[in-house]
Amino acid sequence: MNTLRKTLRTMLAVGALALVPLSASFASETAALGTEARIPFANHGGIRDWQADRDQGLWVQDVHRNWYYAKFMGPCFGLNFATSIGFDTHPMGTFDKFSSITVPREGKCVVTSFTRSGAPPTKAQLKSQASVASPKFDG
Asked: Domain spans of the chain?
């Protein structure tokens, strides 16, 4: 009977430990969009994907598939056409509003705001926005 109790306690402890990462993940997913954020361990695979917002900003996806938006201090020349970029993180390895990116052959772009965001618009959404923004003239 004593062995059964020890086994049950061990199973409950292991089950409780397994739920801790799930609750932390759920908390990060329920964080409000537009709130300042950071990606820990960005220097060790914490960033999964990115997409340029012309030369004004950058959508960044972490390994948990959460999206963030980095706004730059000024235009980030060459970003819209870059196929690779470098993420300059702190000594702690986090990417946040105090970080910057490097565009090869162009230079460094300083981040001023790094917030939770939705996914970047798809090419179809961008195309429909462009057609609405620029009316066609039959002249």
From this structure: 42-119
